[in-house]
Amino acid sequence: MSITKSKTRAAALSHVQALAAGTQKHFPAGSFTLGNAQYTTASLVQLLQGLADAMSALSAAQTSARDALAALQGEEAKVGPVIQAYRRFVLAAFSNVTQTLADFDLQPPKTREPRTSEQKVAAAAKARATRAARGTTSRKQKLAVKGKVTGITVTPLTAPVAAPPPQPVSNPPSAPVLGTVSK
Fold first, then answer.
1. In the list 13, 20, 75, 112, which could disulfide-bond 48, CB 3.0-4.6 Å?
2. Which residues, including other chains, have CB under 8 Å from residue 20's CB and lie 6 or more apart?
């Protein structure tokens, strides 16, 4: 349907309902030929209402599915740690009894095979190569590394000297009288 592709579902539903309402208002007893098919006002409105009902049902189902998914995720968050602890308990209790573990749909823990001398030598060589490639060193070697900084001039910051606060004036000096000259 091209109706729902470019708009949101709510806007598409509103558009279909407006088409049905407008058809009933402006063509109460109309007859239409649309794409080689004959429609009366009642049949066209019924067709549009069927689409609107289907869109509403889809929206309700999706809302219900979202609610069910949220409930499932909440339950999984509560039960997940309990299941994990219980699985560890069952594996510890029946680690050697394969049939009993199969009743719980669990596999026995795999035994670790010891590495051969060739595998140990290869792992050590790989570790040395990785350490050299990354440039990692021991703590004592890191202490010996000192950085050298050149080309930087340090200018000391001096704080501006704050002016002393003004003293309150108790007797202001008398202002000279203008217009009189005294000799």
1. 20
2. 45, 48, 49, 52
Q: What is the pLDDT of residue 178?
A: 57
Tell whether 24 is covered by a domain: yes
Mean pLDDT of 39-57: 93
DSSP line for 63-82: HHHHHHHHHHHHHHHHHHHH
**pLDDT for residue 132:** 83
Which structural domain range is residue 57 located in? 9-103
Short-list 52, 60, 70, 73, CA closest to 4: 52
Give, for 142, the enclosing helix (H) or strand (E).
helix 139-144
Q: Rounded CA gap, 88 and 106, in Å?
A: 10
Least confident range from 79-88, 108-117, 162-171: namely 162-171
Q: Tell me whether strands 31-33 and 38-40 are parallel, antiparallel or unpaired.
A: antiparallel
